[in-house]
Each structure stands twice: as structure tokens, then as C-alpha cells.
Design a protein that fits this description.
Helix content is about 35%, strand content about 20%. By secondary structure, it is α/β, with parallel strands linked by helices. About 30% of the residues are buried. The model has no long low-confidence stretch (mean pLDDT about 95).
Length: about 300
């Protein structure tokens, strides 16, 4: 609680129009009595030795689990945990500068994946602020039993899964969003970043509603195979990406579109790219259990 005298001083400062007083991101939530069906959300953040989920390693995981209902919002705190792990290769000076995690801090540390798995078994959705980063590391750099659990869970991204611009924000970085909402925190440690992520939705419940809606939305992967070379610039402008065929996707321009735009996209390709020819294109459905995973870029 803020001391009344301090609160009064803060109000005086802000009333001048020359100052903005920030509050530290809270590391608790106000408990409520639920009136609707309860669900659980896990907010997870990782710190790693680099950006490649195939070759780099997890050195810290923060986990924050809260219960919520659609009628009441967040109801109670269910679980918090923060663990470090010593990587096989020493942490670089650059990563230490970014994360604050030193080789001395992780020496001898091993993440208890079973402990985290026991808590995640009952959650309905996992939220990360850069879900494609965190999800792929958890699917590729964890024990098989934990990776399989992560693959089975619905994921939402608090950065990409909310159209923050429509809510009046000019960016989607975690620190920026909190600052614009009047909060600060000591970033780049896993559990603290989890609290900062939760704070976005405590302060802006409409953003949490938007996140849940985006997680429920089905999408389709479309591979525009055999597109003429002179159509590449048009496809790029429409945000298609190129697959050279060396990975899971065929040699093609590909994109992912919401289910309600799927037929319109096929019609566009037929008319604008294939000269009116009806093409049978490789496609695959994408839902919250595949979204943000490398598995989303595999054909069914």
C-alpha cells in the first residue's frame, strides 16, 4: 500500500503536468470470489544463452500461474517459481550483460522440470510475451516428458496476440507497455518479466479478452507453390515468405491467414498469382496447440 502522504505528494507532482510518477509492477494480485467457471493461465518467461532454440540453452525459467474466469478476470495466485540452470557452454559476457545472469549464479544449478510440469498439467493456456521464442525453446531444449506436455498445451502471445495499436499503444515491447500504463520493473529476469506480463492484463482487462479471442482463432498455412517468378514482389508485399524447400515446407511462397480470410486468400491467389487457374495448394490448419511452434510450419 502507498503511504497516504506519499500518494498526496505524487498527486501534487503529476498535477503540475511536468512529471509522471511510476509505480513498481506489483508482484501479487488481489484475490476475488469467483462467480463463473474457473480456468488457469500460466505465464512463462525464459532466459537463454542465445536466440537459436536448436543450439542455445535455457538458463532460467520463471513460471507464474493464476486462476481466472471470463466473468471475474484474475481471481487468485496459484503458483510462482523461478529456477536457474547451468548450461553446457559458459554464458557469454553479452548474455550476462543482457540478463544479469552470471556463470557463478548458475554453477551447479539444474531446473526441476518435473516440478514445473506437475503445475502445468492443470493449466488451460500458457502465455508468453514472445511465444515463438519461449515455446520453441521449451519444445526443443527440455526433457522429452516436458516437451511433450508443452506441445499439448494451448499458447497465447501477449505481444502478437493483442492488437496493442488499437488500444492506443505505439509498440508492443513489455517494458514500453508497462511504462505507458504507469509502471516500471527490473527487467530481463524471468519471474519478474512474468509479473510484468500479468500486469498488462490486470491494468487492461480488455487486452486479456482480446488475447483469449486470438488464442481461440483458427488459422491456415498456405503454400503458394509454382508461382511465377515475376509475382514475387507482389507476394512479398502481401507478407508471404519464401521456403527454399530444404525444410518442412515445399519450395513455395507461404503465409498464415485467419480462418475467416482463408477462402478470400485462395481467391486472391487464383486471380492475382495464377492467372485465374484453380490450383490445389498445400495447406495446414493451425490452432493454439501448434501456434508459435516450429510445428506450425509443417503440412498435415
Amino acid at each position: 500500500m502507498i503511504d497516504p502522504q506519499m500518494k498526496s505528494s505524487m498527486q501534487v507532482l503529476e498535477s503540475t503536468g511536468q512529471y509522471k510518477v511510476l509505480a513498481r509492477v506489483p508482484e501479487t494480485i488481489a484475490e476475488k470470489t469467483a462467480t463463473g467457471q474457473q480456468f488457469k493461465a500460466a505465464i512463462i518467461d525464459l532466459e537463454t544463452t542465445g536466440l537459436d532454440p536448436v543450439t542455445d540453452e535455457i538458463i532460467e525459467i520463471g513460471t507464474l500461474i493464476v486462476s481466472f474466469s471470463n466473468e471475474d478476470g484474475f481471481i487468485a495466485l496459484a503458483f510462482t517459481d523461478n529456477q536457474l540452470q547451468q548450461p553446457k557452454i559458459p554464458i557469454s559476457a553479452e548474455i550476462t550483460k543482457i540478463t544479469g545472469i552470471t556463470n557463478e549464479a548458475v554453477a551447479g544449478k539444474v531446473i526441476d522440470w518435473q516440478k514445473i510440469e506437475n503445475q502445468l498439467n492443470s493449466v488451460d493456456i500458457i502465455i508468453c510475451h514472445n511465444a515463438s521464442f519461449d515455446r520453441n525453446f521449451m519444445e526443443l531444449q527440455t526433457p522429452k516428458h516436458f516437451s511433450q506436455l508443452i506441445q499439448s498445451k494451448a499458447f497465447a502471445c501477449s505481444s502478437r496476440g493483442v492488437k496493442w495499436s488499437e488500444l492506443g499503444f505505439e509498440g508492443a515491447k513489455l517494458e514500453y507497455l508497462n511504462l505507458k500504463m504507469g509502471y516500471f520493473y527490473d527487467g530481463h529476469r524471468a519471474l519478474i518479466d512474468c509479473w510484468a506480463t500479468l500486469n498488462l492484463f490486470v491494468q487492461r482487462p480488455e487486452a486479456f479478452d482480446a488475447l483469449k479471442a486470438s488464442a481461440r482463432q483458427k488459422e491456415y498455412l498456405i503454400c503458394a507453390i509454382n508461382a511465377a517468378f515475376d509475382k514475387k514482389d507482389e507476394l512479398k508485399k502481401r507478407h508471404y515468405r519464401w521456403s527454399d524447400g530444404s525444410g518442412e515446407l515445399p519450395k513455395s511462397w507461404w503465409t498464415i491467414v485467419p480462418e475467416d480470410l482463408y477462402q478470400a486468400e485462395l481467391d486472391y491467389l487464383k486471380d492475382a498469382i495464377y492467372g485465374g487457374r484453380q490450383m490445389t495448394l498445400p495447406t495446414a490448419s493451425v490452432n493454439a496447440r501448434k501456434r508459435y511452434s516450429y510445428r506450425a510450419l509443417k503440412l498435415d
